Amino acid sequence: MNKNLIYDVDSKLPFGKNLLFAFQQFLAIIAATILVPILADASGLYLSQSAALIGAGVGTLVYLAFTKFKSPVFLGSSFAFIAPLASAVAFGYLGIILGAIFAAFVYVVIALVIKFVGSEWINKLMPPVIIGPTVALIGLSLSGSAMNNLMNVAVSADNYNLLAILVGIVTFLITIVASVKGNKQIKMFPFVIGVLGGYILAVIITLIGYNACGSAYCNLVDFSAFKTVGEFKNWLPNLTFVGAITGKTPNGAEALTVGSFADVVTIFVAFAPVALVVFAEHVADHKNISSIIGKDLLKEPGLDKTLLGDGVGSFAGALFGGCPNTTYGESIGCVAITGNASVWTIFTTAILSIIIAFFYPAVAFVETIPSCVVGGICIALYGFIAVSGLRMFKNVDLDNSKNLFIVSAILVPGLGGMFLQFGKVQITSIACALILGIVVNAILKPGKAEIKKEVSYEKETEETMFGTQVKADK
């Protein structure tokens, strides 16, 4: 067990405390999970937010089963599949399901290869000098999304709002104070406290500035979602497999469908290559969570098990919510910050996601959480992902110019937004950076990539979630 953890992977928490931890995980993953269906299907006919929550919950339960409840990772809607999903939507529910099958197929094939040849080649292909900067890149590349939410410009640059920035920063500061300065109980739930604090401030500004004084600039919380709570249709998630069976969209119209073999090929070409890209992120995420919990998940339960869980879980989730899933860095960041790696908390989060999806008032409440509050929380979440990556290659000898070139090949193209476009298939900036890093590493073949760095302290130290810290004088 990592000394920075409060609860280990197999720890079983008291029911109430576990439920609160699960709600905190839910808050960490909710924004990204429900955003994917909006971006992939603007019409809302084939993908819905509540169904995506169910898909994420179901996918996570499948993943936990395949990994024998040894990997505390939550699966949520994958941003990498937004473009393929947008293509699949043109073929209705069946097109979405076929896309999920093709993506899962790639995972299963890779998992079978690893099952028979082992995973040691992964460590050779992606040593710390590669995997560390890649994990850091995942966190840093999300910083733009966090700031767009914080400044309220995720939808349009015209929505830039100083009050939103204030609320987001206050949310972040509350989270910091709760995590660092709070008592033992408060330190466990910094996200819950941060979100509630930011939400309350946003509500106060809205009620006074907008409702009482009529200033549209102060309208940070949109309560309109609650107006549709009484409509029964909103309580029924638009489940993908149900739509495929009935052949009807929620408005009663005939659903689009796959009409020819050419359509099938189009869907395959859109999904399969992206699954190969997400595989690299899968490895990076599991390397990251392994460093946090102090156990190598690529060995136990094994990379083949995590891939099967991710692939089959992604397909199972898509059957319900339409969106293929992936391991969530937000969830991993939450584990790092709270020190709770209990897989039973992840299990409870999955169940909670499914239950909330069927309780529309809860979904409506989530929709009213301002983007600036989400942005404030994500400063901490994405920052911890980046720092986790930096810590993974802290022993890499950066005085060696070969290693400097490798790290540069990853960070600059990744942060700069390099991508490759082949028709409808796009290789993301993170994937491009990782591939380039692997190529440069193979060419340079640095002899001693890592060195042992000894650090001494004059005073007594303690291990915290922020690393080794010198104890304060009493």
Question: How is the topology of this model organized?
Answer:
Elements lengths: L14 H26 L8 H18 L8 E3 L4 H7 L3 H26 L2 H6 L2 H14 L1 H8 L11 H19 L3 H4 L2 H23 L27 H7 L14 H33 L4 H24 L3 E3 L1 H10 L4 H15 L2 H9 L2 H22 L8 H16 L3 E3 L2 E3 L1 H16 L16 E4 L2 E4 L4
Antiparallel strand pairs: 1-2, 3-4, 5-6
What does this structure look like?
By secondary structure, the protein is mainly alpha-helical. It has helices at residues 15-40, 49-66, 82-88, 92-117, 120-125, 128-141, 143-150, 162-180, 184-187, 190-212, 240-246, 261-293, 298-321, 329-338, 343-357, 360-368, 371-392, 401-416, 429-444; strands at 75-77, 325-327, 420-422, 425-427, 461-464, 467-470. The strands form 3 sheets. The chain has a two-stranded antiparallel ribbon with strand order 1-2. Strands 3-4 form a two-stranded antiparallel sheet. α8 (162-180) runs antiparallel to α10 and α10 (190-212) runs antiparallel to α17 (371-392). The longest helix has 33 residues, at 261-293. It is globular. The two termini are 29 Å apart. The mean pLDDT is 87.
Brief characterization of the structure:
This protein is mostly helical and 474 residues long. The chain has helices at 15-40, 49-66, 82-88, 92-117, 120-125, 128-141, 143-150, 162-180, 184-187, 190-212, 240-246, 261-293, 298-321, 329-338, 343-357, 360-368, 371-392, 401-416, 429-444, and strands at 75-77, 325-327, 420-422, 425-427, 461-464, 467-470. The mean pLDDT is 87.
